[in-house]
Amino acid sequence: MPYGFVNSMRTRPGHRDDVVAILLEGVDGLRAAGCRLYAVGVVEDDPDLVRVSEIWESKEHHDRSLDLPETKAAIARAMPLLTGEFASQEMTVLGGLGV
Amino acid sequence: MPYGFVNSMRTRPGHRDDVVAILLEGVDGLRAAGCRLYAVGVVEDDPDLVRVSEIWESKEHHDRSLDLPETKAAIARAMPLLTGEFASQEMTVLGGLGV
C-alpha cells in the first residue's frame, strides 16, 4: 500500500530557507526510489518550521530511501541547521486523487 | 502558491472504514476544483483515526471547495461518525516532486 509521511522540523533561527534549499536539491532522484510526492513547505505563523509531505510506493521504499547516498548527504548538510525537534505523522494510503 | 493541508480526524469506534468510504466517494470532482492531491489513509496503531493529506492550487481553492455541494454533503454524512476531534496542519508548498 502507498505510504504517507509528514515531517515537521524546526530550524535554527534564520535557517529555514537554507533547509528548504537543501531538501529541494535532492528531489530528482526520488521518483526512481519509489517516491510519488515530496512537497516541501513552510507555514505562515512560524518562521523556523519546515514541513515535508511525502507519499511513497510503500513504507519499505521510504525506509530504504534513507540509505541512499544523496539522502544521507542531504541529511548531513541539514542537521547542523536544525534544532532536533521533529514531529512526524504516518499513514497507509487507501485511495484518493493523485495517489 | 500550492497549499498543503493534513487533517487527522477521530472516528467513533468502529466507524473508521465508513468515514474512509465517504471521503473517497467525492474524489472525482476534486481535480476540477483545484485539488492536486487528496490521499485518504489510516494509521497502524490507532483503529479510530483517519488522516487526509491534500495539496491544492492555492489556499483559496481549498477554502472554496468547502462550499461545493458534494463537499457539504460528504461532511454532513461523515460528521455523525466523528467524535469532533480534529488536528490539522497547513503549509505553503515551495517545491518538490509531484507538486
TrEMBL record, chains A, B:
<dbReference type="InterPro" id="IPR007138">
    <property type="entry name" value="ABM_dom"/>
</dbReference>
<keyword id="KW-0503">Monooxygenase</keyword>
<dbReference type="InterPro" id="IPR011008">
    <property type="entry name" value="Dimeric_a/b-barrel"/>
</dbReference>
<protein>
    <submittedName>
        <fullName>Antibiotic biosynthesis monooxygenase</fullName>
    </submittedName>
</protein>
<feature type="domain" description="ABM">
    <location>
        <begin position="3"/>
        <end position="91"/>
    </location>
</feature>
<keyword id="KW-0560">Oxidoreductase</keyword>
<dbReference type="GO" id="GO:0004497">
    <property type="term" value="F:monooxygenase activity"/>
</dbReference>
<dbReference type="Pfam" id="PF03992">
    <property type="entry name" value="ABM"/>
</dbReference>
